Amino acid sequence: NELDWICRRAVVRGAEGIRSDAQLYLNIDLSAVSDVDEDVEQMRSLLRWIGRPPANVVLEIADADRFTNLGQLSARVDVYRRAGFKIGIDDTGRPGIGIDLLYAARPEVIKIDASVSNRCEEVDARALVLECIALAEQIGAEVVAEGIEELSVAAELMKLGVNRAQGFLFGKPESITGPSRELEGEPAVLRAIAATR
């Protein structure tokens, strides 16, 4: 949880110069959060620091497959949503992140995993993409295809009805030097780096 918060602070600091009406996607490790109400208040405080409203932040749940109790996932997500945040579910189509989980979370953004997006001409992948689109229409969500590197894949997904995507075809990530310098001395970062060696 400490490392998750260090990463959140880095992202928010890095987004300080971005227009406040632009959507900020922020990955969170929801299963590591012990007190959701306290987490929401800390997030709101962090956003006030840079003048960004929760309505312009999509909390992208990157660990949704860790929730075996979908009712618990739904309850946690609802606390953030009531506070004004939007919810995104990352990596849809990976093991453990299927339509039943999406029904429970009812996210505003459904992100289709690159392993599915790039196989969109295959029957099983195509079926999942179409299921995601149908659900998105029911709950008022947007569908985003991840990991797009080929124009032919983007074109096929557009034919299926996916109109948002991310990947190297559209641009590569840019470095932000400020936050990484600020975080170099954080004890949790140093421990995490040491653990990978």
Description of the structure:
The protein is of the alpha/beta class. It is built from nine helices and six strands; from the N terminus they run H-E-H-E-H-E-H-E-H-H-E-H-E-H-H. The chain has helices spanning 2-14, 36-50, 70-82, 99-105, 114-117, 123-139, 151-160, 177-183, 187-195; strands at residues 24-28, 57-61, 86-92, 109-112, 142-145, 164-165. Strands 1-2-3-4-5-6 form a six-stranded parallel β-sheet. Strand 1, helix 2 (36-50) and strand 2 form a beta-alpha-beta unit. Helix 3 runs parallel beside helix 4 (99-105). It is globular. The two termini are 21 Å apart. The mean pLDDT is 87.
Query: Runs with pLDDT <50, length 5+?
Result: none
Widest sheet: strand ordering: 1-2-3-4-5-6
Oligomer: single chain
Going by helix content, strand content and strand pairing, the class is: alpha/beta
Portion of residues in helices?
Answer: 40-55%
- Overall radius of gyration: 17 Å
The ordered string of helix (H) and strand (E) elements is HEHEHEHEHHEHEHH
- Tell me the number of helical segments per DSSP (H or I, 4 or more residues long): 9
Instruction: Please give the number of β-strands.
Output: 6
